[in-house]
Amino acid sequence: xxxxxxxxxxxxxxxxxxxxxxxxxxxxxxxxxxxxxxxxxxxxxxxxxxxxxxxxxxxxxxxxxxxxxxxxxxxxxxxxxxxxxxxxxxxxxxxxxxxxxxxxxxxxxxxxxxxxxxxxxxxxxxxxxxxxxxxxxxxxxxxxxxxxxxxxxxxxxxxxxxxxxxxxxxxxxxxxxxxxxxxxxxxxxxxxxxxxxxxxxxxxxxxxxxxxxxxxxxxxxxxxxxxxxxxxxxxxxxxxxxxxxxxxxxxxxxxxxxxxxxxxxxxxxxxxxxxxxxxxxxxxxxxxxxxxxxxxxxxxxxxxxxxxxxxxxxxxxxxxxxxxxxxxxxxxxxxxxxxxxxxxxxxxxxxxxxxxxxxxxxxxxxxxxxxx
Length: 372
Ligand SMILES: Nc1ncnc2c1ncn2[C@@H]1O[C@H](COP(=O)(O)OP(=O)(O)O)[C@@H](O)[C@H]1O
Ligand SMILES: N[C@@H](CCC(=O)OP(=O)(O)O)C(=O)O
Known about the structure:
Layout: H1 3-6, E1 10-15, H2 17-20, H3 29-44, E2 48-53, H4 56-63, H5 73-96, E3 102-107, H6 109-113, H7 115-130, E4 134-139, H8 153-163, E5 168-173, E6 194-195, H9 200-206, H10 217-230, E7 234-239, H11 245-250, E8 257-259, H12 265-275, E9 281-285, H13 287-294, E10 300-301, E11 305-309, E12 317-321, E13 327-332, H14 337-343, H15 351-355, E14 362-364, E15 369-371
Parallel strand pairs: 1-2, 1-5, 2-4, 3-4, 5-7, 6-8, 9-12
Antiparallel strand pairs: 7-8, 9-11, 10-14, 12-13, 13-15
This protein binds adenosine-5'-diphosphate and the ligand N[C@@H](CCC(=O)OP(=O)(O)O)C(=O)O.
């Protein structure tokens, strides 16, 4: 099957501890290599893959010989700190069999909420993918306190899917998908193949049960599915041990539980820009830039900026106005006010020599802009 005809460009695959350990106390490398093979084959067919992997705590326990440590946050951080190195080493070795490099990204909630860090994380992800390198994401457990923790990798993978503008999120676990009751407690539970609406009755089915080493159970997978499908991303929950599971999910075969996406991503991003944080400043555009932005669907370049007002950092939402103050568009700035004061009216190619760095030619990228 020709994957480009299927239409998925970018896929986030989340692997739970239950999949990586196959229910044992150690990383099941024989199984991990098979998952790496499937992901590598997608990359070679032109579908970009972002891997969100759990397993650091399990790998840390294994590496230290299963120490009997009290169940405290600090000890989990200790295990994650030891295990993350082992985990990324394993993935790096397994993907190298297929000629692929990996890049590690350890994130926390704080990185995804702060607009500047969000943009930086997004740029790193895109840079890795643009160079054919698989981004491997996990929560930065060793530094994350409860306030800044996402807390579970299901939610983290959904946020990563939004971050990289994926069109499919695959959550792999130790069950065939979402059942109408916890299959561990109810052997007669039935697989739900299609979900079009996530409501309280569905959330009740997800219960609170968690596999031996997992975090959150189906409840966090449903939260993740809801976040992703509201942003226009399709979601599949399936068994990480089903043969060809990743490839089949990408080929739209009936695999596990499929969640229909609600809206298209652009609409949802527009809503975020309009309903998100208050605007922090204004950019006055010249007439050419106004035509480019409002009629030609272009990004805003520094050349078309006449003046800058407000104090803001990279990532702030700004109003794009004309010389009499009429607002034409709103969008997220890739440069701070200080940077923009220096580069306004200048050609994009000069940015690096003026600032000593550059975040790309677009000051407000098309994808981060709403034309009013
Ligand atoms: N309705 C349900 N359908 C499927 N699994 C459920 C359901 N309710 C609870 N679960 C539990 O969720 C567990 C998977 O979550 P978790 O242990 O966090 O795995 P992972 O490590 O893959 O994230 C399953 O082993 C299962 O017992
Ligand atoms: N960040 C932790 C995993 C947290 C988590 O959500 O685990 P899981 O439910 O197995 O996906 C780790 O690497 O051990």
